[in-house]
Amino acid sequence: QVQLVESGGGLVQTGGSLRLSCTASGHDFSRLFMGWFRQAPGKEREFVAAISRSGGWTHHADSVKGRFIISRDNAKNTVILQLNTLKTEDTAVYYCAAKEASSVTTEVYNAGWYEYWGQGTQVTASS
Fold it and tell me: Mean pLDDT, to the nearest integer, of 41-54?
């Protein structure tokens, strides 16, 4: 059973930065495709970013492209989401997700495709 634990959320002024981490246990991390999603109050969970097993492929939602960066360190069983130039509309609970998968598909943007989820970490950007 995969366990995912997020950390790094908090309150930051608009324009500021945060670094979210997600550490996995209970599985060979290098076999996991990883994603980040977020959910704001009253809204559906939405795709933020995803990264392949090796880290050679990444994709970011248009709403965060150029501001957020996803990366991973397989030696540390960790995936990182660097949040820069935060806006008030970035305020949400951010979730780490994982699925054992060997190739990229269009399903990586779909929350229902992922098998494992963390508990979430709150990010609040305020002016």
Answer: 96
> Could you tell me the pLDDT band of residue 121, with boundaries at 50, 70 and 90?
very high
Strands (E), the chain: 3-7, 10-13, 18-25, 32-39, 46-51, 58-60, 68-73, 78-83, 92-100, 116-117, 121-126
| CA pair distance 108, 95, nearest whole angstrom | 14
CB of 9 within 8 A of CB of 19? no
Share of the chain above pLDDT 90, in %: 92
Spatial CA neighbour of 66 closest among 52, 82, 55: 82
> Taking the C-alpha atoms of 28, 114, 51 and 43 in order, what is their torsion angle to the nearest 10 degrees?
-140
Q: Contact 97/32 with Cβ under 8 angstroms?
A: no
